[in-house]
């Protein structure tokens, strides 16, 4: 993930120079869905394959929504820690940083979104459930 703004909220491909696969430090699959549900709620994603550029305010909202889950110590919370402790400070210090959330409905995907393509490549390399 990484900050930027986008008009409220139409999913659409990230066509400009998108992130590289190695930029996706956190990949979530079916085992831990809550972080994905939280981000989907924040950006208004209801289904399908799409990418979203998140503003700092949207990432703050995602952190606030996910924070109560931290009370459960049965699971690790890498998304919450990374969003709060890495991405938010990075957005404060790096004006070129961007947070990108990607949702993939089904594989394979059409190659018209640079962020989706990078995510799929990263998914093939490693998965953090």
Quaternary status of these chains? single chain
CATH topology: Alpha-Beta Plaits
* Count of individual beta strands: 2
Largest sheet: 2 strands, antiparallel
H/E series, N to C?
HEHHEH
How would you classify the helix and strand content by structural class?
Answer: mainly alpha
Q: Shape from CA axes?
A: globular
Can you list the strand order of the major beta sheet?
A: 1-2
As for the number of domains, it is 1
Average of the residue pLDDT scores: 76
Strand content: 5-15%
Over the alpha carbons, how many angstroms does the gyration radius reach?
14 Å
Instruction: Note the gap between the termini.
Output: 16 Å
Low-confidence stretches are 1-11
What's the CATH C level? Alpha Beta
Query: How much helical structure, as a percent, in the residues?
Result: 25-40%
Count of individual helical segments: 4
What does this molecule look like?
Helices cover 38% and strands 8% of the residues. The protein has 129 residues and is mainly alpha-helical. A two-stranded antiparallel ribbon has the order 1-2. α2 packs antiparallel against α3. The N terminus is likely disordered.
Element layout with pairings:
Blueprint: H1 34-43, E1 50-54, H2 56-66, H3 78-93, E2 99-103, H4 114-125
Antiparallel strand pairs: 1-2
Helix pairs in contact: 1-2, 2-3
Output the keywords.
Alpha-Beta Plaits; 4 helices; globular; mainly alpha; disordered N terminus; two-stranded antiparallel ribbon; 129 residues
Short description:
About 40% of the residues lie in helices and about 10% in strands. It is mainly alpha-helical. A two-stranded antiparallel sheet has the order 1-2.
């Amino acid at each position: 993930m990484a900050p930027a703004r986008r008009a409220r909220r139409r999913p659409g491909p990230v066509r400009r120079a998108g992130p590289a696969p190695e930029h996706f430090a956190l990949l979530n699959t079916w085992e831990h869905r809550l972080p994905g549900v939280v981000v989907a709620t924040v950006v208004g994603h209801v289904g399908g394959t799409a990418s979203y550029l998140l503003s700092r305010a949207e990432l703050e909202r995602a952190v606030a929504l996910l924070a109560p889950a931290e009370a459960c110590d049965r699971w690790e919370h890498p998304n919450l820690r990374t969003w709060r402790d890495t991405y938010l400070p990075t957005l404060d210090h790096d004006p070129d940083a961007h947070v990108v959330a990607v949702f993939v409905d089904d594989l394979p995907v059409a190659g018209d979104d640079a962020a989706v393509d990078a995510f799929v490549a990263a998914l093939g390399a490693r998965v953090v459930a």
